[in-house]
Specification:
single chain, alpha+beta, Ribosomal Protein S5, domain 2, six-stranded mixed beta sheet, four-stranded antiparallel beta sheet, 11 helices, binds alpha-D-galactopyranose
Length: 409
């Protein structure tokens, strides 16, 4: 395989190497040593896409690729933030954090510190921090690099200022899911739904989460594709995310509108498309676009429940048709695909993948393919060749191995 796929992202770098990189970045920026290094994973969603903000069911798992935060407390109320991958450093007071401020990547970190405070999860002794972050999660690839940022710093703050509440068995960890969502919704001004933060906080190595987004209850489902002679290949299309923010808002607004018209709290809980349609018709709503959005949410949540049943029965190899149907629904009913994702999905299937679909927000980012372990090289070759034939940006690849949640590195 190594002759086919090289580069830093195929397997995650070793924990020791990444922790050291974050520490070195810290020392170069601030001098001295950090109090510790914490990390949080990116994620792949096996199925159940664009249903988290509709109270549906999804099955995400954590990647081995993580974002690392080297952190040390301050006593003057300042937050000083640097990143190895992203833009300029940011310095400001906690009191300066407000909707839209700071902008860019620092919003996710400063927003998490602010939201943990708002949630009452930081002690009165909190007097600011120096933090240096280094990310092995590809940025802008639809693999949840923002939640990895939030949760890497979040577990650090819970450990340092929340009485050790960052520990894996601490009930206060659920507060970090809420805080991460608030950082995105209220400070970064991205109206995302919570799947990414729940995965970073609750994932377990060798498991997929069954996340019910109506209640945020989780169940751990064993998921070790390698044990079935299979792999989950991630194809990062490297396509720019086009219109992703405005289109995301648009889908979310459609879902909220349909739920309000139907008088239900969670569209993703409904089981019958026909009943939803007749309910909407009864209040005079027959917009075909809205009806397609509703059909996606209801059928996608049903597919995720069916996939969870397959995982529970150990029937991993039978997931393919559900993944394919998810992609069709996201492309046709939710209109989220783009030429790069179509190329990746078509070529994966043509090269023998059991199923393939776009993951994450859409309009670029990544696709996943369920592939026989011995066919991974062939699928990589074909996906790359097809992108070249269609004149598209060269994709990159990584292997998704269900990995552990955020914690001390
Ligand atoms: C993004 C958001 C998530 C979720 C997915 C689509 O990753 O952050 O909350 O809505 O898109 O499933």
């Amino acid at each position: 395989m190594s002759e086919l796929v090289s580069g830093p992202t195929w397997h995650p770098p070793s924990t020791a190497a990444s922790a050291k990189t974050a520490s070195a970045l810290f020392t170069a920026a601030f001098g001295g040593e950090p109090s510790g290094v914490w990390a949080a994973p990116g994620r792949v969603n096996l199925i159940g896409e664009h249903v988290d903000y509709a109270g549906g069911v999804c099955l995400p798992f954590a990647l081995g690729h993580r974002t690392w935060a080297a952190v040390r407390p301050r006593s003057d109320g300042q937050l000083r933030l640097v990143s190895g991958q992203l833009d300029e450093p940011w310095t400001g007071a906690l009191a300066d954090v407000a909707p839209g401020h700071p902008a860019g990547w620092a919003a996710y970190l400063a927003g998490t510190a602010w939201a943990l405070g708002e949630e009452g999860l930081l002690s009165r002794g909190f007097g600011g921090i120096d933090a240096a972050v280094h990310s092995d999660v590809p940025v802008g690839a639809g693999l949840s690099s923002s939640a990895a940022l939030e949760c890497s710093l979040g577990v650090a703050l819970l450990d340092l200022f929340g009485g050790g509440a960052g520990a894996l068995d601490s009930p206060a960890r659920s507060g970090l899911v809420r805080a991460g969502v608030r950082a995105e919704n209220e400070i970064a001004l991205a109206s995302t739904g919570g799947m990414d933060q729940a995965t970073a906080v609750h994932a377990r190595a060798g498991y997929c989460l069954r996340l019910d987004c109506a209640t945020f209850e989780t169940r751990q489902l064993p998921f070790a594709p390698a044990g079935h002679g299979l792999a989950i290949l991630v194809v990062n299309t490297n396509a720019p995310h086009r219109l992703v923010d405005s289109q995301y808002q648009d889908r979310r607004a459609a879902v909220d509108r349909a739920a309000a018209l139907l008088g239900v709290p969670a569209l993703g809980r409904l089981e019958s498309v026909a009943e939803a349609r007749s309910g909407l018709a009864a209040v005079g709503e027959e917009d075909p676009v809205l009806l397609r959005r509703v059909r996606h949410v209801i059928t996608e949540s049903a597919r995720a429940r069916a996939a969870a049943d397959l995982l529970e029965a150990g029937r991993v190899a039978e997931l393919g048709p559900l993944l394919d149907a998810s992609h069709t629904s996201l492309r046709d009913d939710y209109a989220l695909s783009c030429p790069e994702l179509e190329s990746a999905v078509d070529a994966s299937r043509a090269a023998g993948a059991l199923g393939a679909r776009l993951v994450g927000g859409g309009f670029g980012g990544s696709a996943i393919a369920l592939v026989g372990a011995s066919a991974v090289g062939q699928v990589v070759t074909e996906v790359r060749a097809e992108a070249a034939r269609r004149g598209l940006t060269e994709p990159s690849f990584l292997l998704a191995e269900p990995s552990a949640a955020a914690g001390r590195g």
